[in-house]
Design a protein that fits this description.
It holds the Pfam family DUF6495. The protein is an alpha+beta fold. It contains seven helices and five strands, in the order H-H-H-H-E-E-E-H-E-H-E-H.
């Protein structure tokens, strides 16, 4: 398995897609029930293959990621050959960037000395999607990129 098995809730949400996936392998509901009961390892393999297919589709479409901590924002933009990163660091303990209030404070006080902005870029490894997946496993979430684009305009 390349990524991770979808959760029970994700499988429930993608129930129809999983049925279609099984159908492409000419596995009927009755056959699937038998496989689950008598060949659980085969059932698990099918679920792993489906999970990887779902992850591949999601990761291919991911254009922006964000990872928030109380004092830092990590904003990623996925480009063709590299990922770009903007890091926002706040050195005031009472500010929590994981809250709406913290982000509102940041918007008003972006030019204070206690707010630092850094940029970086990194080429992908041989597997761009796996690079993105690792960031998600570390707590990043897929976003529309609003914060990245806002901070990109602020940077020189």
């Amino acid at each position: 398995m390349k990524y991770s098995l979808l959760t029970k809730e994700q499988f429930e949400e993608l129930h129809q897609e999983f049925i279609n996936f099984l159908a492409t392998q000419t596995i009927t509901k009755q056959e699937w029930d038998t496989i689950k009961e008598k060949q659980p390892e085969v059932a698990k393999q099918e679920m792993e293959i489906f999970s990887d297919l779902v992850w591949e589709g999601v990761l291919q479409k991911a254009a922006y990621l964000e990872n928030h901590s109380p004092d830092q924002l990590f904003l990623f933009k996925m480009e063709a050959s590299e990922m770009r990163l903007i890091v926002v660091k706040v050195s005031i303990d009472k500010i929590d960037l994981t809250t709406k209030e913290g982000l509102a404070w940041l918007q008003e006080n972006i030019h204070l000395d206690e707010v630092a902005l850094f940029t970086a870029s990194k080429s992908y490894s041989e597997d761009k999607n796996l690079d993105i997946f690792k960031l998600i496993q570390q707590g990043a979430i897929i976003t529309e990129g609003i914060l990245f684009e806002v901070f990109q305009k602020i940077l020189p």
